[in-house]
Amino acid sequence: MENYLSRFNISHTYVEGNDIIEIKNAIKPNTKIIYLESPTTFTFKLQNLKEISTLSKKHGIKTIIDNTWATPIFQNPIDYGIDIVIHSASKYLGGHSDLVAGIIIGKKEDIRKIFETEFQNIGTVPDPFVAWLILRGLRTLHIRMERHYKSSMEIVNFLKKHKKVESVLYPFDKDYKQIQLAKKQMRGGSGLLSFKLKTRDLNKIIKFTNSINFFKRAVSWGGYESLIIPYAVTLKENELSNNENISLIRIHVGLENTELLMNDLNNALKNI
Ligand SMILES: *Cc1c(COP(=O)(O)O)cnc(C)c1O
């Protein structure tokens, strides 16, 4: 939005997203799109899809959601009045960390417009092998998602009890502040979650991440294997001090045995 859309004189306003009044106040006469990501993929904040789509329709604004985290197994935003749903197919739809692709879903007239204009100019086309890999991944999607959900709940409960962990962010944790909304618009949760270490010492945070054996240190997620990434790697040098999120760690809970994953986390936590 900042580097690309600004070239076309398209401006934007960021809001937290959990307060409908804040969204309402951000609407301007030239507002065309409300772009959502629910839940967000580091801090897991939810937006109320029904309220936002009702508000948008009143103003003639289209809504787009990035639905990558929940997948179509756990969340169907079109049922809540959202116009366009996008997915990174590189994540759960493919499910094996071996392809890059994306999917846009919406009404025929919206998709046709995108296809005939933007897509023809700047879109990319997955090759037949990538398309085949996505189809192959989709066959086990529902089973993989059930397992990611079950394993994540186990890991969440393990982390919540650990004395070196301050807090855990997962929409289906019973103590999560937006659990009611999560249950209302989603049927379950995927494998991506965050937790905050009690320490704010960057050296300890680095030591913790480097003591992890089994989780791979990588950014993209949604595949069979477990991954870990500290939020601190997304920060610039001058953003490191006094940052509330400095000790936030994001993990992707893969399809492996959860005992193995908990032992790995436990050993690394012991090290700090
Ligand atoms: C990874 C990701 C993307 C980008 O997807 P790619 O297929 O890697 O280009 C977009 N949205 C979310 C929420 C993601 O996690």
Automatic annotation (TrEMBL):
Write down any Gene Ontology CC term.
cytoplasm
What are its cofactors?
pyridoxal 5'-phosphate
Magnesium recorded as keyword? no
* Source superkingdom: Bacteria
GO function term, MF aspect, one: pyridoxal phosphate binding
Keyword set, alphabetical order: Pyridoxal phosphate
A biological process (GO) of this protein is: transsulfuration
Q: Which family does it belong to?
A: Belongs to the trans-sulfuration enzymes family.
Q: What is this protein called?
A: Cystathionine gamma-synthase
Q: Which organism is it from?
A: Tepiditoga spiralis
